[in-house]
Structure prediction request, 683 residues.
Amino acid sequence: MKWIFSVLFVFIFSSTFFANNLTGREIMEKALNKTTWDYMQGKVELILINSSNQKRIRKIIMYSRKRNKDESDMLMKFIYPADVKNTAFLTIEHKNTDDDRYLYLPALRRVKRIASSGKGGNFMSSDFTYYDIGKPKLNDWKYKRLEDEKVNGYDCYKIECTPVDNSIMEDTGYKKIIRWIRKDIFVTIKSLYYDTGNREWKVLEVPEVKKIGNVWFQTDMIMKDLQTSHKSEMIFTGIEINKPVPEDFFSKRYLQRIH
Amino acid sequence: MKSLTKIFLVFLFISTCGFAQGLDISGYLKFFAHPNLNSPYKFDHLGTRLQTNFSYNLGDFADFRSTLDFNYEATKVPGLFNEARSKGMTIYPVEAYIDLYWDKLDLRIGKQFIFWGKTDWINPTDNLNPWDYQNIGAEIEDYRIAVTAVKSNLYLGNYTIEGIWLLHFLPDKIPNGIPDKMGSLNVNMLPAELPQNKLGNTEFAFKISSEIANIDYSLSFFHGFDKNPTYIFNFAPAPNPHLEYQQKYLPVNILGGDFITTFHKFAFKGEAAYYFTKDKNGDNIFIENPHLKYVLGVDYNFTGKLKFSLQFIQDILFKYDPAKEKEGWEKLHNPFPDIKSKSASSLSTVVNYSIGDFTSFQLIGVLNFKNLDYFILPILNYGLADGLNIYAGATLFGGPSKSPFGRSKKGKRAFLEIKYSFTL
Prediction:
C-alpha cells in the first residue's frame, strides 16, 4: 500500500514540477494541440453591440475541416437576418501562398474570388479579426512566460506573445498579445491585445468553455474594443466535432447551390 | 386575367408544398420613392412592393424556387402625374425555376438570372439577361430582366462546362432618346422589329471555366441577338420630307473570356469579348461594326471595411471608316449623324465603405474619356434593425447632350427605399 502512495506522490510532485517549469512556448504549444479537430460544424450567433448598446445579430452555419496538418477549409453561410440570408464564404487555406477566398452573393447569383483583407481584417464587421477566429501559428510569435494569475477563479498561465517580425505585426495589427491559459485544460480564457502603437486595444473574454468529444471548445467569446467601446460576442451552439463533412461542401459548386 | 392565373398558381404551389418539409418562405416589404431631379413628373417611382420567395428543397436531388413581386405604383395611378404611365397594381414573376442535381451535372430550368463575367458592373461577356435602363436602383432584379432558359453545368475534374439555351428573345428596356423633330425634319417611329419566335431564332451560349494556380478563368461563346436595338433610319423626300426610323434587333455572335486572381489584399481581373455583328465589312452606317470590348481592373481590400475597385474599359471598332460613315449620314439629311471614334475608353469605379457600426456606402461611377460624360450611382445603407434597412441614393448622368450619358441627363433621379426583409 505504501508504495502506491509513494508512486502517486512522485507522479503528482513531478507533474507539478514539470508544469511549473513549462516555458511560454511549451504552454502555447499544448494549448494549440488541445483545440485541434479534423472536422467541425455548428451554428454561430454573432452579436454586434455599439457604444450606444444597440445590437445587431448575425447567425451563421459553419463547416470546417482539416485538409492536412497545416491547411484547412471553412464554409460559412448566413441564415439570419433575412437581408443577408444565403450569403456564403468559402476559404481554402494554403500553407505557403495566399488563401483562396470565395464569396457567394445571392443577389448576383455568382461566386466570386475575393481579395483577402489580411489577417487583421474584420470578420463580418465585428471586433473579431480573421486572425482572432483562426488558429494561431506557433512559429509566428515569441513567447515569454509571466507570473501566473487567477482569472474568474481559475489558475492560469500568463503568456506574453510578440510577433517574430514586422510582417506578422502588420498582418495581424497586433504588437503584443497577453494570454491567460487555464492550467487544468490549457484553454485561453482571456487575451489582451495591443495595437501597433503598443496601446491596449482589445480584450477577449471567454465566459464558457465546453468539452465536445475530446476537444475543449470556447463556446462563448466576447471581444471588447477598449478604444471604441464597441463589443462583439460569438456564441457557438450545436457544435459537432469530428463528424465528417462531405468534401463537396468546400467547393464553388456547393456555394452556388445554396439558396 | 393573367394576373389572377399567376396568383392562383402561386397559391396552388404554396398549398401543395405547405404541408411538406423543406419549404422556405422569405422575402421583403419595401416602400420606395424615386423623385425625379429634372423631369416634369415629381416621381419616377413611388410605391410599395412585397416580394415573396418560395424555396422548396427535395433533398440532394432537386430544389424549386420562385420569386414573385406584388408592386403598387402610385405614380402610375391614372391622372395623378401622367396618365400614359398608369398601371397601379402589378404582379411580376421575377424568377421561377427548378434545379436538378446529379453526380457531375446540375440543371436549372425556368425563368432565371444568369450573370456572367468577373469584372464589376461592366461585363462584356454578360449578354444573357437584358437590362432595364429605365429602372436602375438598389435591387438587381429591378434593372436586370430574368430569362426563360435551360442552364446546365457539367463538372469534369477541374473544369466546368456551362451550356445555356434561351427559349425566347427579350430586348433591353431603354428610354426612347429620339426626339419627334430633328432640326426642321419631323421624325416618325415605325413599330420595332423583334426576332420571330421560332426554333431557329433561339439563343444559346457555352462557357468553360477552370482555375490554374490561383487564377480563375473562363472562355465563352454566345449566339443570339443584340439586346440593344439598331436604329435604321430612312429619309422620305417631298412632298412631305421627314425621317422615319425603326428599331431592329440583329443577330450577333460573341466570343469572350475572363480571369481573376488575388495577391494579398489585391484582386486583378479582366474580361474581354469580341462581337461578330451583322455588319461584317463595316459598310452599313446603322449597324454596329465588329468590335472588341475589354475591361481590366484591380480591387483593393483595405481592412474589410473599405474596398475599392478601379477598371479601365475600351471598345475598339473594326472595319470602321469615319469619312465613309459621315458621307452615309449626310445622304440621309440627318442633322444628328452618329459618327463614332474608332475606339472609346472609359474608367469605372466601385467603392464600398462601412462608415459606422450599421451604415455602409457604395459608389459606382463610370466616366467616358471622349466627351467626359459620366454616370454616378451613390447608395447609402443604414441598418435600422436586423433585416430593416434604409437605402438612399441617386442615379446621376452628366456630360454634353450628344454623348452617351449626356443624352440620359433627363433621367437623373434620387431614390429612398425602406426595406424589411423577412423569413417565415
